[in-house]
Write a structure and sequence with these properties.
With about 375 residues, this protein is of the alpha+beta class. About 45% of the residues lie in helices and about 20% in strands. It has one domain. About 40% of the residues are buried.
């Protein structure tokens, strides 16, 4: 069943929307990896799309629908190095962004949000796992972590780059790798506005890199006694802007950095939000930074939609895992493109879980089964 017929049956207007032909382009990019071959590469990609849509592992999907053998999938992916797989994954995301650009979704300047996406892992520790998530009893669970850059705007998101974190890789290397990949994307050229990041990235090295490359940035800053004193002084003077001296602690060599801190009082409370930014705002207009930063939360919506099309796996291969994460992000991108083309306004949050499977499965799953035969 085609996508257009799905919408006609739902009483929605007949429009040109994302269809199953979109996946053919992604399968073509993936099958271009020399060790796979065109025919086998496309079948593997369609099978992994089916895993994401059904929330199954490749073994469970094969038992239910047939298609490519799990041994063939895993042995083929094992031949691909992590570095090569990251390049392929970013080419796949670049194609997704090009589709959105063809639909004129990047006419206006968009901000780039960077965040970590953690996926639980129940195996033993590897160089590609970190302990970050807190469990139910105060324990920290092991997970695979991925740095993701997403173009965000009002009710808009499109994941544009991904990079796997590993032990020994700093926040600076993740931010640098993601932004350099975003800069190479022709669709986003000269259309990237402000870089939005979580307070986890607020470090001297990251800020120096952003400023040396002329990036505008906004990120929240962790509260401290020094920051509290600066805020109390701001309340007395009415000037909610101050200079803050950050320190990077290195053995025997401390590096200092002076940054601009802007305070936004919380209404009806004694608390405040603090942001560090190189965007100069007039006195009394600090709230603009808070409004811009709110767009970063759309990357969290991106991750939430991605979880609806999340496959399962027990594989320890980081290349295979980042490929599954990328396919999930692509499906989430297609969902947002679909939503924009079909509706004049975003679907409500409660409708995501109810409609995502229904629409995308009709769009992809049936042709996928045919493509695997």
């Amino acid at each position: 069943m085609g996508l257009k017929s799905v919408y006609i049956s739902e009483g929605l207007p007949s429009v040109k929307a994302v269809s199953v032909t979109a996946l053919k382009g992604f399968a073509g990019v993936f099958s271009g990896i020399p060790v796979l071959g065109r025919r086998k590469g496309k079948k593997i990609f369609y099978s992994l799309c089916g895993c994401c849509l059904s929330g199954m592992s490749i073994e469970m999907f094969h038992d239910e629908y047939g298609g490519v053998s799990p041994d063939v999938v895993l042995s083929s992916v094992n031949k691909i190095s992590l570095e090569m797989m990251e390049k392929v994954c970013n080419r796949l995301l670049k194609l997704s962004v090009r589709m959105a650009g063809g639909a004129r979704m990047f006419v206006r300047t968009k901000n780039v949000s960077i965040d970590y996406h953690d996926v639980l892992y129940y195996g033993k520790s590897t160089p590609f796992t970190v302990k970050t998530l807190e469990g139910h009893k105060g324990k920290r669970r092991r997970c695979h972590r991925y740095g993701v850059a997403s173009v965000t705007g009002k009710c808009f998101y499109q994941a544009v780059s991904i990079m796997g974190a590993r032990k020994g890789v700093s926040n600076l290397e993740i931010v640098k790798g993601l932004l350099e990949d975003v800069g190479r994307n022709p669709v986003l050229k000269n259309r990237v506005g402000v870089v939005l990041m979580d307070k986890f990235f607020a470090g001297v090295d990251v800020i120096n890199y952003l400023e040396s490359n002329d990036h505008l940035y906004i990120m929240p800053f962790k509260h401290s006694k020094t920051l509290d004193r600066l805020y109390e002084n701001a309340r007395r003077t009415g000037i909610f802007h101050a200079l803050y001296h950050m320190r990077k602690k290195d053995p025997g060599n401390s590096v200092w950095k002076t940054v601009n801190v802007y305070f936004i009082p919380v209404e009806d409370e004694e608390g405040y939000y603090a942001y560090i930014s190189n965007i100069e705002t007039p006195p009394g207009m600090e709230w603009i930074l808070d409004m811009i930063y709110r767009g970063r939360w759309n990357i969290e919506v991106n991750f939430k939609v991605k979880k609806v099309v999340k496959p399962t796996t027990s594989s320890k291969n980081p290349a295979y895992r980042i490929l599954l994460e990328t396919i999930s992000l692509i499906l989430a991108n297609l969902w947002k493109q679909l939503e924009i083309r079909i509706t004049d306004r975003p679907l409500r949050q409660k409708q995501y879980d109810l409609t995502l499977h229904k629409l995308i499965q009709e769009m992809i799953t049936t042709p996928t089964k045919n493509n695997m035969e």
